[in-house]
Amino acid sequence: MSVVTNTTTIGAIDAPSRRNTELMLLGIAVAIAVFAYVNVGLAIDGKLPAGVFGYTAGITLLAAVAHLVVRKFAKYADPLLLPLAVVLNGIGLVMIWRLDQSKRLIKRAEAAWGSFSPDAPKQMLYSAIGIALFVGVLVLLKDHRILQRYTYISMAVALVLLVLPMFFPARNGARIWISLGPINIQPGEFAKIIIAVFFSGYLMVKRDALALASRRFLGLYLPRGRDLGPILVVWAMSILILVFETDLGTSLLFFGMFVIMLYVATERTSWIVFGLLMSGVGAVGVASISPHVGARVDAWLDPFDCATAACDQVSNSIMSFGAGGTLGTGLGQGNSDLIGFATNSDFILATVGEEFGLAGMMAFLMLYGLIVERGIRTALAARDPFGKLLAVGLSGAFAIQVFVVAGGVMGLIPLTGMTMPFVAAGGSSVIANWALIAILIRISDTARRPAPAPAPSSDAEMTQVVRP
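== FtsW/RodA/SpoVE family cell cycle protein ==
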């Protein structure tokens, strides 16, 4: 007796989602942040801080909400991006709260403004708003390729955001803020994401023309004259921002991100060379005519031999790093609050360097490096050119911002006035960077998602099985 069985030779293989790995890493991230909070309280007062349970509940709730949304709407996303962002945000909240306990900062604020308002509760609120935006991006943005439709609209929106601060009063020598009553917004933080969308859409269409070279000189392929137009326009825009807003950080971020994406799109080293030369020429030119930028250059060249506020900040920051040594003074036991009003924003990295030491500082920067690495890995895995360029652009913008902030605080480059992502006090920065992480998670989910199983076909291969 024989039996004939019909089977198909094609089957779907489901890829692991790695959401349980993400959950485990989130638990470690929350534990690190809570341990740091307790450590600061014990170092300052010798007892558990009164707000430890509130802080633990708050950071746990935010991490849990973000994880559940990723599990539901981005099942195959990279499992490291969210835990890395949570641990940085959590440590940032701890460092800001630690500085809120400084008696020197409290007395200085009361002398200057008549009262002291702690920044840690506000930063927790900004973190919650950032998580809400993170959730909104993942829920509403089903496919990152939808953003390609808004290539030129995003350019217009980014230009408006970059120009608006010119019409508002300068703060600390730079016009980078929009003040609407009690609300202060730094539009450059949001513009970096929007303009990355424009660059991705534009370069995806124009990359073949930009990759052409007319001649070879000193081992470099020189682009044709008419193809230099885009980089000249972006260079001119970055210089105008630097001149009218005296915002060195946004100019470097804006132009650097474009050059990185241009290089990735065209694979021409000549664009990198032109970009470095043009950024150097622009920075030197503006430093010679802008007193604010010139003062920051002087503070960079010799912070111990000038009398400006920037020199005082940079010199105190360098001494904070030196006082930290290899293992640090311990959380809550440093003196970085001597830097002044920018201690918990521009110069919060000095507190990390002093209280965590060189070893802790390297681990801290490694967290940022891992976010950039996961972003680049996402770009490599993306299946569409727009997604590749967008992931590279967002990762490059994040890396440039970390570099210019860390370099300015350490005295490697002039101060830029930007804030350390997720760590420094400021609502615009933490909210915008949570949106950036959400877009990277959406791209990684699309890239890692397995292909759908093929539909059954009546013409499928038949296999005859004969049983005695």
